[in-house]
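Retro notes, item 3 of 5
We never archived the inputs for the NAP complex last cycle. Fixing that now. Sequence and ligand:
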Amino acid sequence: MSELLSKTEYQQLAKQLRLPSKAIVNGEPYAAASGATFSTTNPATGEVLANLPACSAEDVDIAVSHARAALEDGRWSKLHPASRKKVLLRLADLLEANVQELAVMESLDSGKTIFDCQTVDVPETIHCLRWHAEAIDKIYDQVAPASDSHMAMIVREPMGVVGLVLPWNFPLLMLAWKIGPALAAGNALVIKPAAETSLTALRVAELALEAGVPPGILNVLTGSGSGVGEPIGRHMDIDAVSFTGSTVTGRRFLKYAAESNLKEVVLELGGKNPCIVMDDVADLDAVATHIVNGAFWNMGQNCSAISRLIVHKVIKEPLLKKVFQLADAWRVGDPMDPAHRIGPLVSPAHFSKVKSFLDQGEKVLYGGVTSDERYVHPTIVEVEHNGVRHAREEIFGPILSVLTVDSLQQAVAMANDTEYGLTASVFTANGTRALRAARAIKAGTVTVNSFGEGDSTTPFGGYKQSGFGGRDKSVHAHDQYTQLKTIWLDLSDSEAGDI
Ligand code: NAP
Ligand code: MG
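Structure as it came back at the time:
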């Protein structure tokens, strides 16, 4: 990890940054065919950072035709896997050489703290690209069991032209989770970053060209969900879409696919993630540290954020006391100051949505909105039962709801009483109970005595309405971006005798 700079040094870097102002299609800077633009702003100040092309269906058509040509002539898909690996490793090296520039750009555009951008988002992005690059030449195809006079091969081929539609909460990291395996598998991509946070995807596309990803393979179109996202979802010549975002929008992509060409759809969606703490936990300080990090990291704008603390009544008071103490240390303010852990929410619209969860006489145990209408303190709200809005809806802000139980059985039932199933955590000193709970909870990732999302080696995705169709991360992510083909050979040959 590169060293953190001072606030003044980051501000200086921010002033010197060259911010992208064009989309990228077929390896070239690209303006929308209509000439329209939209502005992307700095959530900490409201200042306009750049005007970007407001692309539309016409631009999606152009990008897809370049992607299709690039796919079909084999400039990427037919390279030796080791050559694709070399290019992707070079891309990771280029990102590493630009860690601070990328961290500052990400922080400016999204309001994420520079501390997180430089210590988590950018390094994890680089690690993710390296991991998938390294996997390229280690994934084997299969030969199926067949009779002596047959040979049955199961080969993986690139999915084709793939659309990637991304959220604003981890602009670089969600990009990496998708382009890592998608490029490794040899596909051609048309990417739509979130309108609020498009800058770093454009910068990565520039660096990808520099690293040797051929023109036409990694196209980035900026614009709105209706202008670019929907035309990608409905395009007749896009073979698959991988989407990360809200459940409401994800659902639309299934409709788009059903009403167009039945493209493959993978959805990584929202969560309402439970964290169970039983009365036998050994180290309350460690538990509280995980809870504060899990609930408030990235201002709670995290699909896997702990949002329901389901705590045994005996341990509730001492645990909350420690959680409050630790949350006190999370300083709120200018995200460009490396001492700050909480920046502004991504936009005024999102602030209003999050604030609406604190407007109806809730029992706020800790925190609340700040006097500055962009920031929300780490906040803890007591709720009486799992049926209230705080316990059911994804808030996507730094608000943790606390629910009290008196048994593990009750806790697991409550954890599962949700339409979501992305992540969950269980804290107990009893290993058997921990594993029983982990197996009983319907979620794609369950962490025991910790909060987290696993690492590059483990798949990530949701049960129930938290996901559909596949997983990000690990070798399982490669399944999203490949088609399986059976090649069946008849080897019977009367003249070959009995060899
Ligand atoms: P969102 O509103 O669903 O937007 C996601 C993307 O879809 C954006 O690029 C958006 O474009 C686009 N979009 C919006 N409306 C569309 C439409 N009608 N048709 C096609 N595309 C459309 O989600 P978000 O607010 O950016 O992200 C937060 C959500 O992502 C949360 O629910 C969070 O839980 C989820 N998330 C899930 C994971 C996971 O791995 N499971 C990871 C991170 C985040 P605009 O740019 O115009 O908004
Ligand atoms: Mg922005």
